[in-house]
Amino acid sequence: LCSGNPSLCSSYVLYAGDFQFAVSSDDNSELWLSSDDSPLNARLMAYVGKLGSEWTAPGEFTKFRSQVSKSVHLMASRRYYFEILHKQDDKGSDHVEVGWRPFLPGLKYEVIDSAYISLYTDESSLKMNHVDHIPQTLASHGPVPAETHTRSKHGADMLQPDPRDTFFNIPMIDPSHLENVLPTCLYSPTYVVKDFPIARYQGLQFVYLSFVYPNDFTRLTHMERENKCFYRESPIYLEKFGFYKYMKMDEEEDDRPFFFPNPDGEFSCVIRGVWEKHQHPLRPIATARPPPAPTPPSANSSENVLPTEPLRVTSYLHTSEITESQQQRPDMDPEPEEEGGISEYSYEDVEPRPGWAEEAINWQRTFSVNSMDFETLRSDWNDLRCNVSGNLQLSESEVVDVLAQYMEKLNELNGGIYTLLRIINVEKRRDSARGNRYLIELELMERGRKVVRLSEYIYMLLHRGRVEDSLENMEGVTWGTVYAKPLLCQPVMLQWKKNVMVHFVIPVKNQARWVQQFISDMEFLHRETKDNNFNIIIVDFQSEDMDVEQALRESSVPRYEYLRREGNFERSAGLQIGVDTIEDSHSIVFLCDLHIHFPLNILENIRKHCVEGKLAFAPIVMRLGCGSSPQEPDGYWEVNGFGLFGIYKSDFDKIGGMNTEEFKDRWGGEDWELLDRVLQNGLEVERLRLRNFFHYYHSKRGMWNSQSSKAPKG
Questions:
Q1: DSSP string covering 333-379
Q2: Are 27 and 48 in contact (CB under 8 A)?
Q3: What is the pLDDT of residues 294-322, one digit of tens each?
Q4: What are the pLDDT digits (tens) for 337-364?
Q5: What is the pTM for the complete model shown?
Q6: Composition bias, kind Acidic residues: at what positions (predicted)?
Q7: CA quadruple 190, 193, 197, 202: dihedral positive or negative?
Q8: Nearest to residue 211, comparing CAs of 17, 394, 21?
Q9: In this structure, are residues 664 and 573 in contact, taking their beta carbons and an 8 Å threshold?
Q10: Beta strands 117-119 and 367-369: pairing type?
């Protein structure tokens, strides 16, 4: 791949179809692609960052929403002009790659290699001051946009619109159309720890994370300049070596080779580019010499395509061959060096060469890198060490397979009246021993005239367990047999109620402005959603800085309850007092905090993740830093906290409610203690990061137990 400012390259396509492009770089980069071989038609397709602080690891194509292009139709045997712009500071592992894939679900991006690239202009006989041949395109010579003179927008991907945010506005599908779509089956996951003895605060170890699709961009990529824990490497290692272990530097005469593990055992090629002073046009640093590309297939060779030579490749471990112990110990001792050379993995013993500084630029320097999906290295364990990583990502191919089966059954029952418009959200809770639970949320067209939404739990049953024998006569399922293949079924007693009442319970004391902000936020939530099925319960510990009851009375919230209690602030007691006022045991309690910014879909998120007798919900909130706001969200995910908790009133009563005796004069730990008892009573706890769900930074001055008294006059 030719890179520079701009790259003077064109792409030669050997077969027609719809493609999707992606770019990866450290730091920023832009991919511009023309609709033909004319530079004048180049348009921006994908990019890494606009603010100068964004970057990716080598071959990491899905970190930012902007990295991936929309589908592009390319014709066989036609040439397409493209440019790559790359900017790099004095830190990190400088690199830039472009990948492509046929626009089909589940396919991975392959780095575009030289079999599909030719030079736009042969510069081999030109001096560096010869620049007349360089095309003047919008990529590098366009006018400065007007918006660059104004304040830059924040770089958090989570701020970009997502169809999940407003999905609740679409009318729900007729429930009768979903009856008997799938056979019923027992839902009894093996990871439930009912009656299992759990030591104090050890419930954290029994909470598992769900996988989501499509990417909800809850990963805090804008915070990874300070915190790179997502990559599972030690900070000291990354500071010293960066991400060079995911790259293979080609050997040169009298040059020590750099060997790095390749995740897939194959190599594609990419050339490094850098910015020159005064933005002087840069020649390609090297030509790529990869092995023949496995995909897309080439039908014929062309004189316009650069010749390829076999690339000498050293043996590397596949990711699947790396043991768990090796993954958990990245700083383990390297393999012994072989006689006459160094070990492939001895890079920790080598003094780093800062940027491979050279007196003269070596135009033949090349390296190889492959597409790297760091998400596949993550597990569903509740990782308490990394507070910038987002929700786990569910593979596209798995989603397509499950939904194809479901849509076939849905239309089989309803006469083919439904067309899938969009996959809004799919959440998977994995249980490899018995089966996987999915929450599927789809936007459907009904009879070609009306758009409806579907939001249901389904179950992919993998194995038959002992408890299922008792359900042998259940309609639609023969439980006495072992299935030859997984069975997609409707889990019994796992349906969420669409209009159930949600009670927000909040204890307060002398927090006037925050109380007023909370009431205003609840008014806004009601105004935007038109949802009347929620209630505010404020337990006031003798606040003297405002009349809380009057503020509630003058508000437009659909319903509220005001409870006044004497004495010092007690969070556990305040929550319990609020819950005790709820008469309907089949409604949802949401134990809340005061300093929260809520997304508009918070009510539906609470409802669909709370199922009576089955599920409780502990959403992960993003804790904003000092000076940050929902519009400029710098901060981290509160991965340790379980204080924001949704549960049915009946389940809350069953486990004994809050521990008001032990946590009478203190708070901190009462959420973990409650979690222990929730799990011991056989409930699952759903744990997800929610988009646009923030905890404001606030001063703790005067909170909470100091006895308020008026200052003496004089």
A1: PPPPPPTTS--TT-GGGSPP-GGG--SS--TT--EEE----GGGG--
A2: yes
A3: 333 333 333 333 333 333 322 222 323 33
A4: 333 333 332 223 344 444 445 456 565 6
A5: 0.73
A6: 333-349
A7: positive
A8: 394
A9: yes
A10: unpaired
